[in-house]
Amino acid sequence: MQVAAHSSGNTNIAIVTVGESEHVEYPAAMQKIDQLQIDYCAVLLRGIGIDTVDKFQDFLACSPNPRLDYRHGNSPRSAVGDGIYTSTEYPPEYEITLHNELSYAARWPHRLSFCCLVPARVGGETPICDAGEMLRALSEPVRERFLSRGLLYRQNLHGGFGPGKSWQQTYNTDDQAEVEAYLRTEDVRYKWLPDGSLRTYQLRPASRRHSTRLTEVWFNQAEQWHPSCLPLPEAEALREIVENDEELPLSVVFGDGSPISDADLAEVRRVAETNAFDVPWERGDVLVVDNMAAMHGRRPYEGDRQVLVAMS
User: Fold this and answer.
1) Taking the alpha carbons of 51, 53, 55, 60 in that order, is the dihedral positive or negative?
2) Rounded to an integer, what distance in angstroms lies between the CA atom of residue 295 and that of residue 37?
3) Angle of helix 140-149 relative to helix 262-274, nearest 10 degrees?
4) Same domain, 287 and 261
5) Are residues 128 and 15 in the same domain?
6) Which of 224, 234, 4 lies closest to 98, judged by CA?
7) In contact, 79 and 85? CB cutoff 8 Å
């Protein structure tokens, strides 16, 4: 296995290449990834040919870390195996901006393992941005506003019909009591609305201390939950059916209830893009991302694209 470091801005990832005549067992490949993740926020494994769900399942079995389900997540995705999901089913013509997975929740995955079964014909890269560098690169006034005030995430989950996801889909149950018990354990405030929908509120910090590196990192989804992130046609359609931002499927304000300005979010996007490294996919690739050390996203694409993800 050959290892090469690649970087863009202040984001560094490692690419491990398996030669055509080289035979590498899955446990050895997993061990190499574990070693490299001490120094790199993401590791791409190329040439090992993990191009089916079963092969991906066997590869993941080499890690002692238990796979997590996607309960409480807001991205559209489907389960295809034991703890394995489609990476997203968001329309291909739209960008998925850089974010840390489930960073709005009380608990989140520490590792994301992606696998490419079919690369897109055009585009579809997965951008990566170092979350520590992201935090340091923000201007002092913007950074201070986020760190001192924190964030309040608001979500509206319909009861079976409406924009966005239903609460039944989000929590994998039709039992309201089960949902309430789960939300209490996850430190989520909630209320049921007369139409059967569920509104939740999550107060979270904008940064976290990395669990092993012990450095402070940008760790939130403010940019992605903010109305300014919506594609224009979707934003216009939603504005016609809601009276205020709190009624949107997703919205976010500062923790004290004050609005986050479009200018602050524009700086967040600019800094993230300045430091982003685009990972182009090939069939059989595996990309392992430290979810606290790095943000990830998805570029728009054309053609078929099948990328799976497991969270641990």
Assistant:
1) positive
2) 14
3) 110
4) no
5) yes
6) 224
7) yes
36 and 140 belong to one structural domain: no
Helix, strand, coil content of the chain in percent (nearest 5): 25, 30, 45
Q: Do 111 and 153 share a domain, yes or no?
A: no
- What is the structure's pLDDT at 276? 96
Q: What angle do CA 285, 27, 64 make, to 5 degrees?
A: 100
* Higher per-residue pLDDT: 301 or 89: 301
Q: Where are the beta strands (DSSP E) in the chain?
A: 2-8, 11-17, 42-46, 79-81, 84-86, 96-99, 111-118, 122-123, 126-130, 151-157, 189-192, 198-204, 207-209, 216-218, 250-254, 277-279, 286-290, 294-298, 301-302, 306-311
Q: Express each pLDDT in 138-183 by its tens digit.
A: 999 999 999 999 999 999 999 988 777 899 988 989 999 999 999 9
pLDDT of residue 135: 97
Q: Which two tokens stand for residue 204?
A: 């979270």
Helix (H, G, I), strand (E, B), or coil: what is residue 264? helix
Positive or negative CA dihedral for 281, 286, 292, 294? negative
Same domain, 78 and 128: yes
Q: Are residues 101 and 170 in the same domain?
A: no
Nearest 5°: the CA angle 78, 105, 127 is 60
Q: Where in the sequence is the domain holding 150, given as residue range(s)? A: 133-270
Nearest to 152 by CA among 245, 269, 266: 245
> In sequence order, what are the residues at sequence separation of 6 or more whose Cβ sits closer than 8 angstroms to the Cβ of residue 278?
8, 125, 126, 127, 128, 299
Q: How many domains does the chain have?
A: 2
Q: Do residues 107 and 150 both lie within one domain?
A: no
Question: What CATH code is carried by the domain that includes residue 48?
Answer: 3.60.130.10
